[in-house]
Amino acid sequence: MPIILDTETIRLMTLFENLTGTNVRDCLIDNESNIVYFVIEKGEIGKAIGKNGNVIRKIENLIKKNIKVFEFSEDAENFVKNLIPQINFAKLKTENGRLVIDIWVNKKDRPTIIGRNGKSLKIYKELLLRNHNISEITVR
After folding, report:
1. End-to-end alpha-carbon separation of the chain, Å?
2. Fewest CB atoms within 10 Å of the CB: 79, 85, 129, 139?
3. From CA 76, how far away is CA 14, in angstroms rounded?
4. pTM (2 decimals)?
5. How big is the CA angle at 74 (ends 68 and 77), to the nearest 5 degrees?
6. Are 99 and 135 in contact (CB under 8 A)?
7. What is the pLDDT of residues 51-99, one digit of tens each?
8. Which domains does the chain have, with CATH numbers?
9. Is-contact 139 124, C-beta < 8 A?
């Protein structure tokens, strides 16, 4: 699935790349929550965050939005674990010609993963669809 980026997204990706020295694969802006989600290349998470989070804080102050950074992985199950670190186990399967991922988490972590009104889960689903063509997440 090709990712279509608007001008603001491209501007933020370029700014992030220039200030961190990392390669951004994807960017998702949530204006409602005032959060920008960046998916960066594998192995570059330390560069993106900076010592004691200084780089991220600098960019957050500059763009006046919170930032969440995730590391990309070619393996869909590892990518899901990078998105949601609380996962105990993840399994990719095909249902009706669509890719679906089942994730198992502790009961106490479910509200955090799902988010208010399913907001966090929608963000994860969008990032998975754009990067690995996974159309559904099932939390167990």
Report:
1. 27
2. 85
3. 25
4. 0.92
5. 75
6. yes
7. 999 999 999 999 999 999 999 999 999 999 999 999 999 999 999 989 9
8. 7-71 (3.30.300.20), 76-139 (3.30.300.20)
9. no
